[in-house]
């Protein structure tokens, strides 16, 4: 019986001890929860401000490991306990005790004790700043007390760099943020005293990459002072917000929005704006030539086009999904070498996240890299360069848009062939050894041929083409006709002096001794009823017509006079300082007039409906030859004809450069259609080998867009095929 009693007593004691243990544990957990230290991190002090002031000044301590329960933190100023005003795990706000002394601030969170820093009891105190972030030039409002002085103005430092004080009172200073200030405390110095307040975060956008792109382009922005919280960084293109993808204090990665516009980037953090470099919107790249379209590993490939980046790493090329390293990049050409293991597939070019899909590439031993010339007429000798050709010329089948050509010579890397009869613009192919290779670009049926020669022409001779492709030209007194098959006949004679010559709705109009006359295609002549144009001074010396049938008279220093039809009324005179009478004037559908200002200048003027002429292309010191925007392009002196093509592009007979220049009036870009050489070779040639005499007095265009030249130097009519 005694043993049972002892056993029961032992069990009872054990249960009693367990209950006490559990109660103690629960109490400890409860205490931890009550004082907010249960999940505290390591106690650490990051900063505090202000570091001076009077008793009762609010002092903010920032860091980690604080108790979120105000009673869980003990703060002393030189041993004097201070009241905790508010408490968070990363921030405490305390009241400097009125009976404290200058010295150390110590903090205990119930587990650890750390020294916060030194607090100085004095009148000078920096208590708050606004804003707390911003770029160079930001006006910071510094509030506190003790800023006034009879000895000298207050001095402000931002992270140790002096700021310009804009305004100051005893409790407020306004100062401008200096350049490259960085992140650091605001310090005010007055009468040998100083006080440190909150930290200021300097913001700057130092660079963006890429500088160009479009919708979806990922842009890396480098700088300083960015907020590490993603949503607090707002990036705008004008008023269009971009999506922020990544962030650190020194880098942002953003994605250009759908309606992105060319603009300087604006970064807003805490309502403070920082402006960065300009991002320029450009279209997705366009591919014009991929050469070659087939070949083995190790082949050098060239991709030509527009809107590539000059920075090689901003361009990416893929073939069948595999990226190909780029060796050299310019704005219009990428060079690369096909690696081992390359497979057949589509060529893709991605420039700053904008993608264009190009032609198919074949991984094979046969390929074409170049054709010279790339245009011509039947009979033109063409050299084809590439790889994998058969040295037996009979084994190489060369097709011009499906028509077989004669192969003259053959090596492994070069063929010479003769463009076949019936040639049309299209793909040039080679078939050999069971393989097929295409040229990088189409072979164009284009070139120059002579329609008539040995003609009677004058320096004032003009040319026109009707809807049936009959050609009409004049000398000083006669009008001649050349049929499409080359028959020459005289259409009309007996004119006193033909100063102007044009065609409208298959009727010819001439300016003959200050009278406008109509000549039908059957040769009958009648007078066009107009106001008395013979009274104009100086007298008209050139005639043009717009697409509505109104006439324009060129009058040397008198400008261009419009004759409204069918009324025949002299309507408006468009003034110019001078005028090249012998250069045909072009008039667009909207009434803009293009004319050559002077026979001895390389200037094309644009005259608007207001009647005021402006120098549009060329300057007095700018004779020469250069394509590009009209603001920088160059032409030579004495253009002899201006006409509009079927798409209302302006064509210029640039006599001095032996060239026909084309200007896209929408983009204002000058290019060269044909660049010839001086010579008397009147045989059919490709455009690259074209020759004509010293002066082309006029040009005309037919319903298919082919161009006709009146070649005064060779007394011939020439035709240029462009397609």
Description:
This protein has 723 residues and is mostly beta strands. The chain is 5% helix and 50% strand. It has one helix and 70 strands. The chain has an eight-stranded mixed sheet with strand order 1-3-6-5-4-7-8-2, with no helix packed on it. The protein has an eight-stranded mixed sheet with strand order 9-11-14-13-12-15-16-10, with no helix packed on it.
Write the layout of secondary structure elements.
Layout lengths: L1 H34 L8 E6 L2 E2 L4 E7 L9 E4 L2 E8 L3 E5 L7 E6 L4 E9 L3 E6 L2 E2 L4 E7 L9 E4 L2 E8 L3 E5 L6 E8 L2 E10 L1 E6 L2 E2 L4 E7 L9 E4 L2 E8 L3 E5 L7 E7 L2 E10 L4 E6 L2 E2 L4 E7 L8 E5 L2 E3 L1 E4 L3 E5 L7 E7 L2 E10 L3 E6 L2 E2 L4 E7 L9 E4 L2 E2 L1 E5 L3 E5 L9 E5 L2 E4 L5 E2 L1 E7 L9 E3 L5 E4 L4 E4 L5 E5 L5 E7 L2 E6 L2 E5 L5 E3 L14 E4 L5 E4 L5 E5 L4 E6 L11 E2 L5 E4 L7 E4 L5 E5 L10 E2 L12 E3 L5 E5 L4 E6 L4 E7 L1 E2 L12 E2 L3 E6 L5 E5 L4 E6 L2
Shape: elongated
**End-to-end CA span:** 125 Å
Strand order of the largest sheet: 1-3-6-5-4-7-8-2
Overall mean pLDDT stands at 89
Structural class: mainly beta
Keyphrases for this structure?
single chain; 723 residues; mainly beta; Immunoglobulin-like; 6 domains; eight-stranded mixed β-sheet; elongated; disordered N terminus
Summarize the structure.
This protein is mainly beta and 723 residues long. The chain starts with a helix and ends with a strand.
